[in-house]
Amino acid sequence: VLQDIESLAKENNMPKSANVILLGMVSSHLHILTPEQLRTAIAKVFAAKGEKVVEANLRAFDLGLELGRN
C-alpha cells in the first residue's frame, strides 16, 4: 500500500505527526506491542509537551491505525 504520509499529515492538520501516523499504520502488523500499548507509550513520550500535543499525536496514531486496517 502506497501512502503519501506527509500529505496525509498536512491534510489532517497534523503536519508534524507523519511519523506517528506511519507508526499507527504498521502497528497492527508488527505484533510486538499492541495498539493500546503504543498509545500509552505515545502519551508518555509526549507528556512533557502538554496535553494538546499528546492528544494530537494520539489522533495521528489512531488515523494511521485505521488506515492500516483498511
Characterise this structure.
The protein is an all-alpha fold. It has four helices and no strands. It has helices at 5-11, 18-30, 35-46, 51-69.
Mean pLDDT figure: 91
Major beta sheet, specifics? none
Q: Please tally the β strands and state the result.
A: 0
Strand content: under 5%
Low-confidence stretches: none
User: What share of the residues lie within helices?
Assistant: over 70%
Give helix and strand order, one letter per element, not per position.
HHHH
Global shape = flat
Structural class: mainly alpha
**Rg over CA atoms:** 11 Å
DSSP helical segment count: 4
Give a brief outline of the structure.
The protein has about 70 residues and is an all-alpha fold.
Outline the secondary-structure elements.
Blueprint: H1 5-11, H2 18-30, H3 35-46, H4 51-69
Helix pairs in contact: 1-2, 2-4, 3-4
Tags for this entry?
70 residues, mainly alpha, 73% helix, flat
